[in-house]
Write a structure and sequence with these properties.
Number of domains: 2
Number of helices: 12
Structural class: mainly alpha
Distance between the termini: 20 Å
Shape: elongated
Largest sheet: none
Length: 473
């Protein structure tokens, strides 16, 4: 109920502002202002060049100075100058009215909506310094007490407007404490999260209003008018006037400010409508957070189970892949072993050949020793022959054994070479399965991380809401 009253109050302020903007449009006559500027240029004559004026304050100062000098010389009133002075006095009063409308928008519409936005985002009330207009704007502005300008001519437009407005927190960062990225990625799956945390459209509206207010503050300041801040829509209102720059900007200032105020009022209405779609009751927020928290907890447990199952499958598949890789590499290893066996057999055969040659020499020496009856030498040669015989036997056995191993290895190699294409196919298939499992597992792990982060964020929000409820008397 209180929320509905708050929305209706702001809507009432927006409607009132729109009515005052309409009234201002009816009050201002750009053709009349253009004629008065032209007449003023003629009447001032040698007292100053109005075409070089870059602000309304500059025109006013020039008119007052020229009027004072002319009256001193003529020692009497000048009806034409009095008419110009009266008109520009009204124009400055109207200028004051526009500034007051801008500050009314800030105080009655923008500030309450900003505080509501911060409350919805859990940021607490807006910490805004209360400043008066005179402290916010230049002392040379018509809003300053030192300017000497009066606002009595348009009093019917501003009687209900306070000049001590709330300043807008121009440095306020709308992105502060934005929900974690995990929450944003789950908007499509959980409507409650989108409703509770998706403030993107409101933030875009807020940024546009802040941009408009920033431009209005600069345009309504006492300095030279910056035509780059004008809205393109306001050009059509002054394009047909035969007035040179920069004084044409003074004429364009009035419709441009009203156009910007209209846009700000329209954006504020949009902001109110967007606020209506948000959950504002603390109890409703808690209920929705609890519902989402339960759903996410269930989903996290399910994802954890899936991750464990996939890890087991991947581990098993990796072992199988390794076994295929071992079998695929076995043929190469066997070729290396076969080459090493051939090398050993060749060396042994060479050594056996040398031992056999030595045997022939020993036999020859034995024959010679027998004929000469050299018993001592004959005995040594016979011992040498027996050692040679043992060497030949040992080498022959080793060669035979290695040859047998080589024959078996050769048969195994043929078998492996025949099976190798199958192992390659199995290896490739197993590798693809491992890659798919790894990709799926990584995706599930990312999903688990995402859900865990969102769950932590939601639980913290729950605790924050509960703490705020307990803190309230």
């Amino acid at each position: 109920m209180a929320e509905q009253c708050h929305q209706q109050l702001i809507c009432g302020h927006i409607q009132s502002l729109e009515e005052k903007i309409t009234l201002c449009k009816e009050k201002i006559s750009l053709p009349l202002m253009a004629r008065m500027i032209a007449n003023c240029s003629i009447l001032i004559g040698g007292y100053g060049n109005l075409q070089h004026c870059r602000s309304l304050r500059h025109i006013w100062s020039l008119v007052e100075e020229a009027t004072s000098l002319r009256r001193t010389v003529q020692r009497g009133k000048d009806p034409d100058f009095d008419m110009v002075l009266l008109y520009f006095d009204w124009a400055f009063s109207f200028y004051l009215c526009l500034g007051t409308l801008v500050d009314t928008f800030k105080r009655q519409i923008y500030q309450p909506l900003l505080e509501k936005y911060q409350e919805q985002r859990g940021l607490g009330k807006a910490k805004v310094d209360r400043l008066t207009l005179s402290s916010r704007r230049s002392q040379l502005s018509p809003f300053s007490s030192d300017s000497g300008f009066s606002a009595t001519s348009s009093g019917q437009l501003v009687t209900d407007m306070d000049t001590n407005m709330t300043s807008v927190p121009s440095g306020y960062d709308i992105t502060q404490q934005r929900p974690c990225a995990a929450i944003g990625q789950l908007y499509g799956e959980y409507e409650e999260l989108k409703e509770l945390y998706d403030f993107k459209e409101i933030e875009q509206t807020l940024e546009r209003i802040q941009s408009l207010l920033s431009s209005l503050d600069i345009l309504l300041s006492s300095g030279d008018i910056d035509e780059d801040l004008f809205s393109p829509d306001s050009f059509a209102t002054i394009s047909h006037f035969m007035i040179k720059q920069p004084v044409l900007n003074v004429l364009r200032l009035f419709p441009d400010v009203l156009i910007k105020l209209e846009k700000a009022a329209w954006l504020a209405n949009k902001w109110v409508r967007l606020n209506e779609s948000k959950t504002n009751s603390v109890m409703e927020k808690l209920e929705k957070l609890t519902k989402v928290e339960r759903a996410l907890s269930t989903r996290v447990n399910k994802v954890k189970t899936e991750v464990n199952v996939m890890e087991e499958r991947l581990e098993k598949q990796v072992l199988e892949l390794n076994s295929y890789l071992v079998r695929e590499q076995k043929a190469g290893e066997m070729k290396i072993a076969l080459y090493e066996l051939d090398t050993k057999i060749a060396l042994l055969k060479t050594e056996l050949g040398n031992v056999r040659h030595e045997k022939k020499q020993i036999k020859h020496y034995i024959f010679l020793a027998s004929r000469k009856n050299q018993s001592a030498s004959l005995k040594q040669l016979e011992n040498h022959y027996r050692r040679n015989q043992l060497q030949r036997y040992s080498l022959a056995v080793r060669i035979s054994s290695l040859s047998y191993q080589r024959a078996i290895m050769q048969d195994d190699l043929k078998t492996e070479l025949n099976l190798n294409p199958s192992y390659v196919a199995f290896t490739n298939s197993s590798q693809e399965i491992c890659d798919e499992l790894e990709t799926s597992l990584n995706a599930k792990c990312r999903e688990e991380t995402l859900l865990q982060r969102a769950l932590v964020f939601i639980r913290e929000d729950q605790q924050s809401l509960l703490s705020n409820m307990k803190a309230k008397p």
